């Protein structure tokens, strides 16, 4: 890598991608970002924008050409699109990014998948990179298919590393973070969920992405997780850290499982997406989905901070923009 390396970033206008761009610019990188015509580019004026989408091969080629590292973050979840679009963006979009890298002069690819393609197996408490799980829903399936393409690219064509963030917490995320904060501090949000998850601060994921670019082994996968917490514990700790009053009523697992079929019905009739999206996801929401980041720690020097370290920034954003 040269003294002033160049990064190409897809998803540069998103929650994670915009923070990554800020960090790379602060570290002295030149940054090329992919932006759709309608994307909110925030204050990222120093980014060289390439306007188009993941279906636009020419834009992708100009985006990645000359980049030392291609951070492929653009992706879409079932909150914002139906299964077909999710598949097209996550799987087919990745295929096009790989093709652009193959055709052009591009260095290492760092692909952002999800920890959701891994789950604790059998009686294990935690999942690691080897715990490949049967995908549930189009989001996980499309990410798993994209991972295969990236692995194949790493075997035969170029350098590529895949990272698997768990649930990312931080300012600017109107979905997961806003909901978790609302459960912690809004008296009108009485719901607790059973089950548990790994919550990672957005700044820690950014550190992991940069470390994967610098020190990851091509062809390898790294879980970028945070603290493993039951939902109850996470909500109570947010309430304490934000000085709010935690919600007390717990939604039983049976009610969440029952919500699965209801969500399917609303989805079909009203063309609106309601979480949990189907029976299998309803089941998933009641499980303890805990992850170990040991491999990233040992090989990349990755570390994560406790939830409390991330609450003040997220809370400031929430009070200003959501509440
Ligand atoms: N947030 C999490 O908890 C989490 C956890 C694990 C993995 N991930 C993965 O991390 C990545 C970033 O997630 P995020 O939370 O930052 O999501 P986000 O805020 O929704 O950002 C998604 C980005 O992808 C872009 N994008 C979507 N469809 C596109 C298309 N067809 N063509 C070009 N760009 C497109 C969006 O552009 P616009 O600005 O125009 O919408 C945006 O820049 C995703 O791949 C996601 O699957 C996220």
Automatic annotation (TrEMBL):
Domain NAD-dependent epimerase/dehydratase: 8-225
A matching Pfam family: Epimerase
Superkingdom of the organism of origin: Archaea
InterPro entries assigned to the protein according to its UniProt record, in alphabetical order: Epimerase_deHydtase (IPR001509), Lipid_A_modif_metabolic_enz (IPR050177), NAD(P)-bd_dom_sf (IPR036291)
SUPFAM superfamilies reported for this sequence: NAD(P)-binding Rossmann-fold domains
PANTHER family xrefs: BIFUNCTIONAL POLYMYXIN RESISTANCE PROTEIN ARNA (PTHR43245)
Official protein name in the record: NAD-dependent epimerase/dehydratase family protein
């Amino acid at each position: 890598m040269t003294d002033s390396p160049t990064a190409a970033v897809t998803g540069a206008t998103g929650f994670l991608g915009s923070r990554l761009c800020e960090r790379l610019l602060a570290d002295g990188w030149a940054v090329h970002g992919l932006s759709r015509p309608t994307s909110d580019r925030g204050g990222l004026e120093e980014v060289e924008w390439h306007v188009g989408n993941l279906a636009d091969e020419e834009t992708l080629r100009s985006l990645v050409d000359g980049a030392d590292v291609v951070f492929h973050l653009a992706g879409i979840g079932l909150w914002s699109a139906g299964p077909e679009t999710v598949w097209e963006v996550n799987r087919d979009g990745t295929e096009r990014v790989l093709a652009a890298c193959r055709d052009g002069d591009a260095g290492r690819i760092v692909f952002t998948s999800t920890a959701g393609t891994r789950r604790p197996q059998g009686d294990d408490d935690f999942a690691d990179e080897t715990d490949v799980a049967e995908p549930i829903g189009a989001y996980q399936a499309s990410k798993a298919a994209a991972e295969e393409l990236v692995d194949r690219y790493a075997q035969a064509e170029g350098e590529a590393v895949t990272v698997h963030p768990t649930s990312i917490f931080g300012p600017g995320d109107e979905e997961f973070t806003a909901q978790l904060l609302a459960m912690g501090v809004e008296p009108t949000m009485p719901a607790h969920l059973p089950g548990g998850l790994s919550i990672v601060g957005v700044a820690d994921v950014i550190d992991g992405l940069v470390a994967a670019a610098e020190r990851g082994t091509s062809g390898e996968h790294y879980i970028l997780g945070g603290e493993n917490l039951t939902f109850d514990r996470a909500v109570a700790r947010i309430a304490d850290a934000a000085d709010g009053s935690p919600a007390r009523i717990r939604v039983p697992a049976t009610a969440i499982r029952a919500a699965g079929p209801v969500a399917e019905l609303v989805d079909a009739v009203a063309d609106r997406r309601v979480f949990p999206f189907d029976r299998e996801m309803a089941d998933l929401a009641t499980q303890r989905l805990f992850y170990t980041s040991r491999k990233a720690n040992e090989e990349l020097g990755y570390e994560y901070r406790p939830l409390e370290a991330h609450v003040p920034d997220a809370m400031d954003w929430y009070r200003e923009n959501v509440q």
